[in-house]
Amino acid sequence: MQVPPRFHYAYIVLALCVLAVFGSLGAGRFGYGIILPAMQDALKLSNTQTGELQSWNLLGYSLGALFVGALTARFGARRVISTSLFVGSLAIFATGYFPFFDTARVSRFIVGLSNAGANIIAMALVSAWFAARRRGIAAGIATAGVSLGLIVTGPLIPAILNAYGAEGWRVSWYALGGIALAVSILGALFLRNRPEEMGLMPVGADANVRDNAGGKNSAPFDGRALFKSRLLWHLAAIYFAFGFSYIIYATFFIRYLIGERAFSTSEAGALWFQVGAVSIISGLMWGAVSDRWSRRAALISVFAAQGAAFLLFGASHELIAIYFSAGLFALTAWSVPALMAAIAGDLFGARGAPAVLGWMTVVFGAGQAIGPWLAGAIADATQSFSIAFIIAGVAALFGMLGSLALRAK
Predict the structure, then answer these.
(1) Average pLDDT for residues 7-19, to the nearest whole number?
(2) 102, 251, 280, 290: which could form a disulfide with 147 (CB 3.0–4.6 Å)?
């Protein structure tokens, strides 16, 4: 009689990575978009200021990305992820507690720093627990944490805002801080750094063949060589295009629907929930495409769809265009981070992936930091976010062109 295979601990790690992405990006970053209208009214903020708050968050994320690889090499992924989530939860609480623009800038910056430690290292940890032929799908599943954030905040935040009135935006931040705190505790208890610690091999690895894509996985990672890699900077430029374009759409999606398209808070939240529900398959779907065909083919397809989504959202006033745009975005939403995490693992292996993904994320984060500030300034100057969404669409198409220039991987 055959003995059934033992359940692999990698799937517990993957589930915790989903929660880490949920607690950091789902709560810490994308919760802002749905709280924004009420917070803007309460603090009397201009569109430029609301964009600046998100830019401070993303600047913190970019700076954090510089150090998370080195911190992980010294302390291990489990400590970095759980500590980052804990610090982030305190900063999220502070965003609601201190009702001033200057303190909100500081707290959003700290949330961004902590997001880098939780999200980047959670995504990189996938490369340690899943071999190359399973890595794209696994990374795609990990990004579902962002979708989970949209699914939770879509109905939760409007309900809190309706229940608590003028203080609802504060209570909303407290709720999101509690989520991040709970995930930090789970990570500290159950995450593990590498399968070797438990006498295991990565899922999908052949016991007789090392998972050594490109011959680089077993070599010690040389940080100085990073800056000499044209391919890495090419990928970073593509990642910049994604960061700049998608964050404009995600940050001001609710604000645009309520302020310019006459949606109620509940209606806009319901559509955001639907985006989250559909987007939960985006990373998994495009990760599978990249495993089956190539990372390049997946990137080209994703950027083409997102470029169309952003251009349509800004250029058309028809209701059907709003829903079609939301659908295109939902089907591709979180696929690029999953693809970049898979590429980092392919090229540099489990040891190099955290640092490589961190450096790529610095450039990606610069795009994210510039996007909301620029979009807010454009909206103040033109009294509409339409042009900002069109610019986001053009940037996504540049990402598609950059992906076309890649060699198939």
Answers:
(1) 92
(2) 280
| Separation in Å, CA 352 to CA 66, 84, 348 | 14, 20, 5
Q: With H, G, I as helix, E, B as strand and everything else as coil, classify residue 217.
A: coil
**3-class SS of residue 409:** coil
The rounded percent of the chain whose pLDDT value lies above 90 is 46
Query: Under CATH, which architecture does the 10-195+225-404 domain have?
Result: Up-down Bundle (1.20)
By C-alpha distance, which of 281, 299, 346 is closest to 124? 346
User: DSSP 3-state assignment of 194?
Assistant: coil
> Does this model's pTM top 0.90?
no
pLDDT, tens only, 290-348: 888 888 899 999 999 999 999 999 998 899 999 999 999 999 988 898 888 888 777 76
d(CA 356, CA 300): 22
Angle at Cα 125 formed by Cα 250 and Cα 225, nearest 5°?
95
Q: Which of these, 372, 311, 333, lies nearest to 33 by C-alpha position?
A: 372
Sign of CA dihedral 188, 132, 293, 12: negative
- For tokens 């069109």, name the residue: 390
Domain boundaries, the chain: 10-195+225-404
How many helical (H) and strand (E) elements, i.e. helices and strands, does the chain have? Answer: 17, 0
- The set of residues, in sequence order, having a beta carbon less than 8 Å from that of 136 and lying 6+ positions away, is 287, 288, 289, 290, 291, 295, 338, 339, 342
- Per the CB < 8 A criterion, the answer to whether 77 and 125 are in contact is yes
